[in-house]
């Protein structure tokens, strides 16, 4: 009987959705390096410091974060294998900042997920970041040179990706091979559109349906219209 109850308890725990161990509260400010802005009660981690790998998942829900403009180039850094999720939230920079987010140098990979209308506006991402942008969310990178450094980005139809200091030609040369759309390689005019942004200095990438999908959507819309006319 005890073994049976133990098995049921383990099964129930497996079914329960897991919560991120570190949760943003924003109770004091928008500064991610102010520990009073985080709830660490579910984690063994007790601080979030610049350029120090956070060894746990991070959840930011209905929040607003601004990475402060500290000396040097700083980043909100995740440990190997961990995930940061923005849900209806914004992560950006204090005015004039040139900081970003990333994994640890030489790391094996971290994930950043943008959901539910989130906006992600760092200067750069670096060190094996896998950035996933859902159909309601967007990302804007402020840096030039190589703002998507040793990292990849997956777009979903409807999401947008912008670069303030990477022209369409520079984006195509430096970053196109790092972008996928629903897991498929990004191809200009097929599943993305590349347009100028921020005057002539930047570029904006919009995920679009592939031609076959657009045709199917058109047929579906036509069929619905015909049904309504009957």
What does this structure look like?
With 230 residues, the chain is of the alpha/beta class. The protein has one domain. It has helices at 2-15, 168-174, 211-229, and strands at residues 22-24, 38-39, 58-61, 64-67, 75-78, 83-87, 90-93, 100-103, 110-115, 119-120, 125-126, 129-133, 138-141, 148-149, 152-155, 160-163, 179-181, 184-185, 192-197, 202-207. Strands 2-1-3-6-9-12-15-17-18 form a 9-stranded mixed β-sheet, with no helix packed on it. Strands 4-7-10-13-16-20-19 form a 7-stranded mixed β-sheet, with no helix packed on it. The N and C termini lie far apart (63 Å).
What is this structure's SSE topology?
Blueprint: H1 2-15, E1 22-24, E2 38-39, E3 58-61, E4 64-67, E5 75-78, E6 83-87, E7 90-93, E8 100-103, E9 110-115, E10 119-120, E11 125-126, E12 129-133, E13 138-141, E14 148-149, E15 152-155, E16 160-163, H2 168-174, E17 179-181, E18 184-185, E19 192-197, E20 202-207, H3 211-229
């Amino acid at each position: 009987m005890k073994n049976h109850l133990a098995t049921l308890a383990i099964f129930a725990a497996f079914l329960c959705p897991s919560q991120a161990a570190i949760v943003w509260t924003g109770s004091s400010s928008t500064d991610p390096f102010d520990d009073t802005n985080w709830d660490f009660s579910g984690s063994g981690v007790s601080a979030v410091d610049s350029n120090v790998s956070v060894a746990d998942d991070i959840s930011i829900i209905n929040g607003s974060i601004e990475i402060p403009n500290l000396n040097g180039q700083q980043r909100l850094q995740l440990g190997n294998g961990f995930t940061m999720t923005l849900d209806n939230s914004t992560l950006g920079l204090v005015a004039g900042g040139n900081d970003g987010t990333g994994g640890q140098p030489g790391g094996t990979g971290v994930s950043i997920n943008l959901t539910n209308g989130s906006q992600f506006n760092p200067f750069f991402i670096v060190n094996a970041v896998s950035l996933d942008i859902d159909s309601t969310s967007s990302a804007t990178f402020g840096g030039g040179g190589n703002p998507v450094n040793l990292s990849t980005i997956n777009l979903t139809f409807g999401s947008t990706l912008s670069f303030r200091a990477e022209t369409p030609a520079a984006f195509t040369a430096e970053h196109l091979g790092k972008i996928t759309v629903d897991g498929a390689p990004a191809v200009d005019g097929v599943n993305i559109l590349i347009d100028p942004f921020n005057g002539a200095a930047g570029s904006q990438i919009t995920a679009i349906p592939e031609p076959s999908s657009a045709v199917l959507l058109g047929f579906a819309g036509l069929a619905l219209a015909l049904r309504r006319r009957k």
